[in-house]
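Example 9 (inverse folding). The structure is encoded as follows.
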């Protein structure tokens, strides 16, 4: 009987077991609350960072997404945000300084497609391209509207008659299609050129031709920036003319006729 009695739990032990179990449960609950608090403390900043990054990607720092809404507002909706961003774009386009800078982005030798869409000009009327070339029509050309009637464009092949002068339209000649043409096998007073493809033709000539119709005669004042090497260096004049060397930064004067467009 002694061994059996010894194996039975005492009253103190019987009463202590529930207390120990309750204490252990409380400790586990406390640890669980601490872990939940830690997770929550880490989750909130992480969520804020993600939301902030998303707002930056969607709207950018300059949009109204970064403006604190009034206390009685729930914040701007998608329509308001798009309107705000669109307003910024419209203000930028309306800025005269930005519009002028945009014009200067046109490369030398090129004219915008909408610069002279109908090709109609009056004799004696002077027009100025975005790059500063001043063209004046002296005699009207064809009124046709076919591609071969002009104006030509980049890559068009055309017959052109011209003379280039220093100082003024009556100044000494430094280049002419006649000098070039009479040396060629064709022996003509005009030369054939492909627009924006000829290294011996100035960007100013290309811009003038792009506002002309076949048969039209005109003249233009070419700023140095549209000359050979952007006008930064002197260059040799054509052999057989009145000039030997054209100085750097020279304003040049051309008389020109668009004889024909061989390939539009």
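The amino acid assigned to each position is listed next.
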């Amino acid at each position: 009987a002694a061994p059996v009695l010894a194996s039975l739990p005492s009253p103190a032990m019987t009463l202590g077991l529930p207390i120990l179990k309750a204490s252990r449960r409380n400790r586990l609950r406390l640890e669980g609350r601490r872990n939940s608090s830690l997770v929550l403390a880490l989750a909130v900043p992480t969520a804020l960072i993600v939301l902030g990054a998303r707002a930056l990607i969607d709207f950018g720092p300059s949009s109204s997404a970064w403006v604190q809404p009034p206390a009685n507002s729930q914040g701007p909706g998608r329509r308001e945000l798009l309107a705000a961003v669109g307003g910024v774009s419209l203000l930028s386009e309306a800025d005269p300084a930005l519009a002028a800078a945009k014009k200067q982005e046109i490369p030398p030798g090129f004219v915008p497609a909408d610069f002279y869409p109908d090709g109609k000009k009056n004799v004696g009327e002077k027009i100025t391209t975005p790059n500063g070339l001043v063209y004046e029509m002296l005699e009207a050309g064809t009124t046709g509207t076919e591609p071969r009637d002009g104006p030509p464009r980049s890559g068009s092949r055309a017959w052109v008659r011209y003379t280039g002068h220093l100082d003024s339209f009556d100044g000494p000649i430094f280049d002419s299609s006649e000098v070039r043409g009479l040396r060629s096998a064709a022996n003509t007073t005009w030369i054939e050129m492909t627009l924006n493809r000829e290294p011996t033709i100035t960007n100013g000539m290309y811009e003038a031709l792009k506002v002309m119709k076949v048969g039209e005669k005109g003249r233009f004042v070419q700023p140095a920036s549209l000359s050979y090497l952007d006008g930064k260096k002197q260059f040799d004049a054509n052999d057989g003319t009145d000039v030997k060397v054209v100085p750097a930064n020279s304003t040049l004067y051309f008389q020109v006729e668009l004889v024909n467009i061989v390939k539009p």
